[in-house]
């Protein structure tokens, strides 16, 4: 198919790598209900047949306006009337090594600032600049609203279109945050691809499989490699945009800090680190993170009922399975009992 193939431009070897990696992903997703060790071992016999650093399965957007082919998220956040979606402060504080309002589960990376922050988030406010309206959540120049504060927080309803923090260069092709706010050295082009199955995701999958004893590989080494590959992906996006790259020394320091915490954890804590790092790396593409959460219970999500705030009330839990249709349950004599949406049963 050549250039008609919008993913791999007709490279059948890359399509084969994608297919095998997709199999690995799917075997991992059913590992709790089926012994997949033989199937996984077969796929890992020759890892060169799996997605590598140059083989990410992703859809490349463009930078054109007419016809518009930019990343849809960029169109939403960086066009007039945009800046609609708020970024969860909980996620931001995990990357900043902070924990100002989530006392129970906490932040596994307290005191560790993730070097990807300027690529993940763009602050529209310059240092010390006033927001356009009263702010619900402000942390430095990061402006957002709390989760679960709808019609509770007196400030959550004010318009912050030109003040709130928006998704940055890495997920959407938006702006790289140089710390000045409002005037960035790179204004964004909107051509960052939509990631669907990447090399770093493959390594996180292998780390999980190894930790759970399904393979004999070293989960710690796989996690370390996965984090490095995650940073490499950010630098790939930055390079394509002409933005500064993350210095390898900063990456090494971050990986060392995370791996020290990993090595000091029990198996459940190790799984939390693998899944939390995968979640952070997948920022901008949440489908796998939701599937991972349903399978492992990680990452630990923001709970609006366990924090020291009077503006949050969480009245519903995150659903982890779809219920049967009530129509089918009523008329099918062999129907199972209705599922509990809070569990997988």
What key phrases describe this protein's structure?
globular; mainly alpha; two-stranded antiparallel ribbon; 345 residues
Give a written overview of the molecule.
This protein is mainly α and 345 residues long. 38% of the residues lie in helices and 5% in strands. It is built from 12 helices and 6 strands. The protein has helices at residues 12-29, 37-44, 72-77, 89-96, 117-120, 169-172, 199-211, 219-241, 248-263, 267-281, 287-296, 326-331; strands spanning 57-59, 121-122, 137-139, 142-144, 166-167, 194-197. Strands 1-6 form a two-stranded antiparallel ribbon. It has a two-stranded antiparallel sheet with strand order 2-5. A two-stranded antiparallel ribbon has the order 3-4. The model has no long low-confidence stretch (mean pLDDT 90).
Poorly predicted residue ranges: none
Helix content: 25-40%
Task: Please report the distance between the alpha carbons of the first and last residues.
Answer: 43 Å
Number of helices: 12
- Compute the average pLDDT: 90
Radius of gyration: 21 Å
Q: Could you give the count of β-strands?
A: 6
Structural category: mainly alpha
Lateral strand order in the biggest sheet: 1-6
Summarize the structure.
The protein is mainly α and 345 residues long. Helices cover 38% and strands 5% of the residues.
Secondary structure layout:
Blueprint: H1 12-29, H2 37-44, E1 57-59, H3 72-77, H4 89-96, H5 117-120, E2 121-122, E3 137-139, E4 142-144, E5 166-167, H6 169-172, E6 194-197, H7 199-211, H8 219-241, H9 248-263, H10 267-281, H11 287-296, H12 326-331
Antiparallel strand pairs: 1-6, 2-5, 3-4
Helix pairs in contact: 1-7, 7-8, 7-10, 8-9, 8-10, 10-11
